């Protein structure tokens, strides 16, 4: 066996050794549960002896399904543009003046991300309640004097988008800032010598070179938006604003644990998986996501 072939074989063995644990976990907690959910979605309580589309018909005709889609769509339309443009803008501003101030601000933006889930919801409930909030004067100026004025059904999607942005923007700023740090300094210096200002450098050089990170963010943000669950569930339990089936994930939870119909719950999860996967595949193939710079 030639030296080259032995080296290639050893490299392949090392690569498999590193990827095998992840592949096994993906199979155990990702692929197998997804296949089981697909099977469960075709197995209805009315006709348990055969596979059918009964669950899909029941979910689509359920009076809560379309309102849940509308709520999730509104949250997605508000949150994703704010999240993507806000993250990119803040990362570009911090990258323009790299130094102690930039490092300190990255930490400031990242800190709210340490408070997530139920703790974040409770924190933001008190922040937005005009009777106890430190921003009470500003809320009163807007005509909001009680929690009932703030936590109305029409305000829920913007409130959830605000909470999701504040708690999530820090980690994405760190990722985008790291991507910007990978741009060769010689290239940025050449742009300055040619007379490009910060705006043109950001628009024509930095953004095209980090576009794959932006696409990656879009894919994960869209999947997260479709699966929103904690914010509407916890705000509903505190304020009784909205409903226990405000989002599709909540509706699936209601099917499973309030009605005991795991087939319909599996159907909702399959719908979410298909929509999320379709959006991800569209972005991947539309943007040549997996091509390297030489192939692009």
Task: Briefly say what this structure is.
The chain has helices at residues 3-41, 54-61, 65-96, 100-110, 117-128, 136-141, 147-150, 156-181, 185-193, 198-209, 211-226, 230-239, 248-257, 262-286.
Q: What this model shows, in words?
A:
The protein is mainly α and 296 residues long. It has helices at residues 3-41, 54-61, 65-96, 100-110, 117-128, 136-141, 147-150, 156-181, 185-193, 198-209, 211-226, 230-239, 248-257, 262-286. The protein is flat.
Q: Could you list some keywords that capture this structure?
A:
296 residues; flat
In N-to-C order, the SSE pattern is HHHHHHHHHHHHHH
Major beta sheet summary: none
Mean pLDDT: 89
Helix content, binned percent: over 70%
Q: Tell me the overall shape.
A: flat
The CA-CA distance between the termini, in Å, is: 36 Å
Number of helices: 14
Total beta-strand segments: 0
Radius of gyration: 24 Å
Strand content: under 5%
Indicate the structural class: mainly alpha
The low-confidence parts are: none
């Amino acid at each position: 066996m030639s030296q080259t072939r032995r080296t290639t074989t050893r490299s392949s063995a090392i690569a498999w050794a590193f990827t095998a644990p992840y592949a096994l976990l993906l199979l155990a907690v990702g692929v197998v549960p997804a296949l089981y959910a697909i099977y469960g979605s075709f197995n209805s309580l009315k006709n348990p002896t055969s596979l059918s589309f009964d669950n899909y018909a029941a979910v689509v005709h359920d009076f809560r399904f379309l309102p849940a889609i509308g709520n999730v769509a509104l949250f997605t339309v508000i949150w994703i543009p704010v999240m993507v443009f806000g993250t990119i803008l803040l990362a570009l501003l911090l990258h323009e003046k790299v130094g102690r101030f930039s490092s300190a601000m990255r930490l400031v933006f990242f800190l709210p991300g340490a408070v997530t889930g139920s703790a974040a919801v409770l924190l933001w409930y008190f922040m937005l309640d005009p009777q106890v909030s430190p921003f009470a004067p500003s809320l009163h100026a807007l005509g909001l004097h009680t929690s009932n004025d703030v936590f109305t059904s029409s305000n829920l999607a913007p409130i959830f988008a605000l909470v999701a942005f504040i708690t999530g923007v820090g980690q994405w700023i760190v990722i985008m800032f790291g991507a910007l740090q990978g741009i060769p300094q010689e290239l940025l210096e050449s742009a300055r010598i040619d007379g490009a200002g910060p705006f043109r450098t950001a628009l024509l050089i930095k953004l095209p070179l980090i576009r794959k990170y932006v696409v990656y963010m879009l894919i994960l943000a869209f999947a997260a938006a479709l699966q929103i669950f904690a914010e509407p569930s916890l705000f509903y339990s505190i304020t009784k604003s909205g409903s226990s089936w405000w989002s599709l994930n909540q509706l699936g939870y209601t099917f499973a644990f309030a009605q005991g119909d795991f087939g319909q719950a599996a159907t909702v999860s399959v719908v979410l998986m298909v929509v999320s996967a379709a959006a991800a595949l569209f972005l991947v193939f539309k943007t040549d996501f997996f091509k390297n710079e030489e192939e692009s």
